[in-house]
Amino acid sequence: MSIEFFFRIVGAVALGVGGGYLGIVFSGAAQQDARLWASVLGAVGALTGVVITPYITTRPARYLRRLISQMPSQALVAAMIGLIAGLIVAALLSPPLALLPSPLGQILPFAGVLVFGWLGILVFVMRQHDLFTVFRERVPVSPVSDLPATSSASTNNTILLDTSVIIDGRIADVCQTGFISGTLLVPRFILNELQHIADSSETLRRNRGRRGLDVLNRLKESPVVPVRVTDMNVEGVREADDKLIILAKQLRCAILTTDFNLNKVAGIQGVTVLNINDLANAVKSVLIPGEGLLVKVIQEGKEPGQGVGYLDDGTMVVIEDGRRLINQQVDVTVTKVLQTAAGRMIFARPDRPA
After folding, report:
1. Assigned domain for 149 exists
2. Residue 7's domain spans which residues?
3. 299 with 268, same domain?
């Protein structure tokens, strides 16, 4: 039996009894049959309880739980401090307000609790950054319980890992160079997704998942960059990419990925993304038009007469009139370089006619 069904039964019983009692009182005042009115109003009360009880019990509680789970820890702490401050102000004002004539003396103290509690939460949440900036040096705040609490650095030193970047494997080599500082954070749902891929019945997919697990173990054993697994989750969201984006917003940290679509979606929502492909493109050798290269033509291009070769770093070189030079080492001259988010492409022509 679900909790919502239980509250529907409780609401039906409570409002049914209340309706029956109201029917007895009303029948006495109207000098009518008490049983008839008690039965009618009791049935209406029970039906009303079945319908409206979830909207005043379980569903608001579920919404509040989801809201709190998606709220950044810093904002949650600021809200609690603001609530305490507001309640203190309301308590100080309650004695003089209670001396006012009735009914103000009974209403205003309670209203003050509500108003000042709400104002305290609002003010402290709006000024949370200023508040934590003042106390950061004295009281370091870490929003992730399983991250090292000894560091006074901000949460921007935490980097969330996506499944694609773990399977890609280059992150392990990048970490060994020391270019990444901070803590690599692997959410439990990313680890579960990686395990699900490794257990796949498809050979290629299974090999990719096992490669990701091997890379993750290599990262855990490396002393250069600390790696932590966190149980933090985002309820009400199924897709791992959406969970990563929401979690990155909560922790105010970056996402490390090779997924082009995740890169774009996260960027639109204001989340910092570190893309290994962008890093690889940035460190490739710079070529300018007119520079010479030695390339082996290995296949045909999309356009008639074109040949395609690759540099040692994987950069594609499209060679004009290079179709007849397949399987040959050719001296070419760069004519154009295109840089895109998907990679770098070089257009060239042979130094001798094909």
Report:
1. no
2. 3-61
3. no
Q: CA torsion sign, 54 to 58 to 61 to 67?
A: negative
The confidence score (pLDDT) of residue 148 equals 43
Radius of gyration for the chain, computed over Cα atoms and rounded to the nearest angstrom: 33
Q: Which two tokens stand for residue 40?
A: 């009618």
Nearest to 164 by CA among 111, 78, 240, 60: 240
Neighbours of 260 (CB within 10 A): 13
What's the total number of domains in the chain? 4
**What CATH number has the domain bearing residue 325?**
2.40.50.110
77 contacts: CB under 8 Å, gap ≥ 6: 141
Q: Which two tokens stand for residue 258?
A: 């090779």
pTM higher than 0.70 for the full model? Answer: no
The burial class, CB within 10 Å (0-12 / 13-18 / 19+), for 213 is: middle
Q: What is the DSSP letter of 322?
A: -
- Give 232's DSSP letter: -
Query: Could you tell me the two tokens for 279?
Result: 């890093």
Instruction: Output the six-digit token pair for 200.
Output: 């796949």
Residues forming a β-bridge with 333: 292, 349
Q: Is residue 213 part of a domain?
A: yes
Q: Which of 68-72, 147-151, 242-246, 340-344 has the lowest mean pLDDT?
A: 147-151
pLDDT at 118: 92
3-state secondary structure 260-301: HHHHHHHHHCCCCEEEHHHHHHHCCCCCCCCCEEEEEEEEEC
Burial class (CB in 10 A: 0-12, 13-18, 19+), 292: exposed
d(CA 188, CA 231): 5
Instruction: Report if residue 97 sits inside a domain.
Output: yes
- At position 32, the amino acid (one-letter code) is Q
